Amino acid sequence: MSLIVILWSMAAAASLSLGVIHGMVWLSNRKVRAELWFAVAAGCLTAYPFFDLQMMMAETPEEFGRAARWALTPISLVICAFLMLVHCYFGTGRRWLLVAALVSRGTALLVNLLCPHGLFFERVTDIRKVSFLGETVSAPIGEMGRWLWVEHLAAVIWTGYLLDASWRLWRTGGREGRRRVVMIGGGIIFILTAGLAQASLVVAQVIALPVAVTLTFLILLTVMGYELSRDVLRAAHLASSLKDSEQRLEMAASAAQLAPWEWDIQTNVIWTTNEGRRIYGIPPDEVVDFPRFISTVHPDDREALEAEVRATLDESTPFAAEYRVVLPDGSERWIGAAGRLERTPQGRPLLLRGVSMDITQRKHSEQELAQKRQDVTHLSRVSMLGELAGTIAHELNQPLAAILSNSQVGHSMIRSGKPDMEEMAAILEDIVADAKRAGGIIHGMRAMFKKETAMQVQPVDLNEAVQQTCSLLHSEIVVRKAKVKLNLAESLPQVMAGRVEIQQVLINLILNSLDAMKSAGAASSEVGITTELRAGSVVIRVVDNGPGIAPEIQARLFEAFATSKPGGLGLGLAISQGIMKSFEGELTGGNHPEGGAVFEMTLPVPE
């Protein structure tokens, strides 16, 4: 068998193999479009060696002309594929110049197919035999085609595109970019230009060689395939390193009970680690989308969680939520999740990435702590009322004594036989009023002594709370020989709080003021209580004319066990501040410029 036939057949087989290999690489990752265009170029080049062989073995001018005419078709397709490869691989080519190169290449191919003997020949007049690789092959004799300038013009345009894309990558691509310029851009320009020059010289009968560029194209294809394969190998190495990093990250996340996750919003697929699937109770092999994720969330928490997700997607606010999930066995687990949104260049939501954590233990601890805090608050309230037992009993004794006195008078009038009915009605009205007063005192004490399972948040009129507290402490204030002046703002909006807890804070502040003024031996003890609306909040201000707060206590005024009161535990203000914070309020204290202490209770007005 002829050596030339063997070599050219091997070249076709090699081109086909390269095309199949890189085509499979592209199918495995369709984002790498350079692999696709290389596979197309290799596939087209597979056909060209057979046209080469037909021209070298042609016995008549007609056979040579037909082969030369059709040989330009795979070459044109190869050139177009190379241009697209450079555009994808370099990423620096001008789009309009690429379009011009492709259009000029297509125009040259069309003109070639319309010419009987192709672009290169006006007509082939004869065949001459020349020696090539130790064998005798055919070379053309004929007139140069008058449309050959179309081919040369197309070559100038696509060469200009390649030079422009290569130069721009050389300036901006760094070391790796310059390597691509030399191996890919330089190789394509050199081989295509050399092939066109060789064919033109053969047509012009300047050199006695066949029109055979198969081997040079195969060399170019091999070099380009090697360069692209380096990227594939580098990507495989990076993928291996990334997998190792992911395994290390997953081990660290699992140890910390963290579960990274990623929601691809366009495909609606959620990825998470094995730890994430474990804490959500999802099998390892199940595909998870957003509805499947939501189905794991406790029904009472779904609406709030979906609202948080919508806010993140609409406004790009950081995602943060705490919610319960229901596991397959029916048990519940608390999850804390946080994440951030990524958008496309067009502004559409693309990815929501974040991390989840099992916070069940923390939630249980918080609930236990809240219960203990509530127990301490209740005990403090009971202790405080225990201290006021004498005065409260005196306060309750007044309406009861009035009821007894009025009852005795009414009984005497009935026994006289001729009672004055108008006076009897007045006596009964006094009895009803005193009974209501006594009932109010008992109801207030019962509410203060009652231990609720949770704070009852409800709309509270702070003016009314202040007045009820002062009524409850009336006897204590009288016994201490003090005065309370009220300056309550009209039309004060209600706040969301616990009525009993607010009264507990007020009682604590008023009793502290009374104790401070008594210890200072003030000639006249006076407590002023005012209410006002200030910057969207309702403020209760308690001022006394006592000695004020000692400097050594002021810095840690609201710390537990900080007190200057003899025999005091120092828990009252700490508990009071905790109560205010539970209602998103604030308790502050300091010394008044004119003397004495001043405390302010601030509660936000609901929107």
How would you sum up this structure, described in words?
The chain is an alpha+beta fold and 607 residues long. The protein folds into four domains: 3-236, Rhopdopsin 7-helix transmembrane proteins, CATH 1.20.1070; 256-358, Beta-Lactamase (2-Layer Sandwich), CATH 3.30.450; 374-454; 456-607, 2-Layer Sandwich (Heat Shock Protein 90). The protein has 18 helices and 14 strands. The chain has helices at 3-28, 33-56, 61-90, 95-114, 148-172, 174-203, 214-255, 274-280, 290-296, 299-315, 360-387, 389-415, 421-449, 462-472, 474-479, 499-520, 551-554, 572-582; strands at residues 121-132, 135-144, 258-264, 269-272, 319-326, 332-343, 349-358, 458-460, 482-487, 495-497, 525-534, 537-544, 586-591, 597-604. A five-stranded antiparallel β-sheet has the order 4-3-7-6-5, sandwiched between helices. A five-stranded mixed β-sheet has the order 9-11-12-14-13. A hairpin with a 5-residue loop joins strand 5 (319-326) and strand 6 (332-343). Helix 14 (462-472) crosses helix 16 (499-520) and helix 16 runs antiparallel to helix 18. The model has no long low-confidence stretch (mean pLDDT 80).
